[in-house]
Amino acid sequence: MRVTVADVVAVSPVEVVAARVHALLTDHLHLDAASVDTDLIDGGLLDSFAMVELMAAIEEHLGVEIDLGSFDVDDFRSARSIAALIVRQDPGAAGRSA
Description:
mainly alpha; about 100 residues
């Protein structure tokens, strides 16, 4: 069987990490985030307590410690934006086992 470029779908590191963050939000923190693009802040899903819990879960489950001095609240607006922050701080995060 011959594989062509059209047969291969590239998944960016942000997409890989976004799926993992979304799983943490829904499975670990039990938040009702419909997708990786759900606005967690405007939707009232992520308050300061949940943000601290999420940061601890990211460190525990993804092996990434968020640098508190280098993020903005908007970095926590969605699973995708959180993933972008993680990949910026640790480009190898997508390649590690979840």
